[in-house]
Design goal:
The chain is an alpha+beta fold. It contains two helices and four strands.
């Protein structure tokens, strides 16, 4: 049986200010192009937050960079 992580492998996450604790998963996406668009929108929506774009445990983009 496929899980949500299998069907939507990309996650856009909001982390606490120190980058030590995940506050919440803002969205999931099926492909990299959509995930990047959501990541950029999330950065605008949460300008002071740390946003990570991840595929599984691998970080693809980090708003702190």
């Amino acid at each position: 049986m496929a899980t949500q992580t299998d069907a939507l492998p990309y996650s856009i996450e909001l982390w606490d200010e120190g980058g030590e604790a995940l506050e919440r998963v803002l969205a999931r996406a099926i492909d990299a192009q959509l995930a990047r668009a959501i990541f950029h929108a999330a950065r605008k929506e949460h300008p002071d937050g740390r946003i990570l774009l991840r595929r599984g445990s691998r970080t693809i983009a980090d708003s702190a960079d």
